[in-house]
Amino acid sequence: MRRFFLLFGLHGYDAVFIHREAAPLGPPVWEYIALKIFRKKGVYDFDDAIWISNTSKENKLISGIKWHNKVEKIIAWSSIVSCGNDWIRNYASSFNDRCEVIPTTVDTDLHKPTIRKNQDLIIGWTGTHSTLKYLAPILPVIRSIQ
User: Fold this and answer.
1) Contact predicate 78/44, CB 8 Å
2) Which of 12, 51, 107, 144 is deepest in the core (most CB within 10 A)?
3) What CA–CA distance (Å, rounded) separates 4 from 65?
4) What is the CB-side half-sphere exposure of residue 52 using CA atoms within 13 A?
């Protein structure tokens, strides 16, 4: 409901920034209202292959109402699309000519991590319960580092 009431404040903005999707389920209703009805410029940002159906036992019930083709609609309606890498930009450019790559990963050639003596090494991971399975193959390596 908060998203619904946010629509009434759009008149005070020139553009709308959409990260991934306004609502994870169903068709792109909020995006359509903001970009087509209120005629706001849209900056669409996504950094994962969210247009690909990825059904697992954790999200099997929800997958049927995900509305996977909403990504291509939001891309087409947007003024510009911010893509996390070239592969995503190649997909997005099928629906919109204004696609730019803004990498979501750290360039380790440019930014070298430093580890000081007596400092714990921290390994980060981002994901959700449905992508946890991708950690399984590297768990032995993580344990050996630990």
Assistant:
1) yes
2) 51
3) 20
4) 7
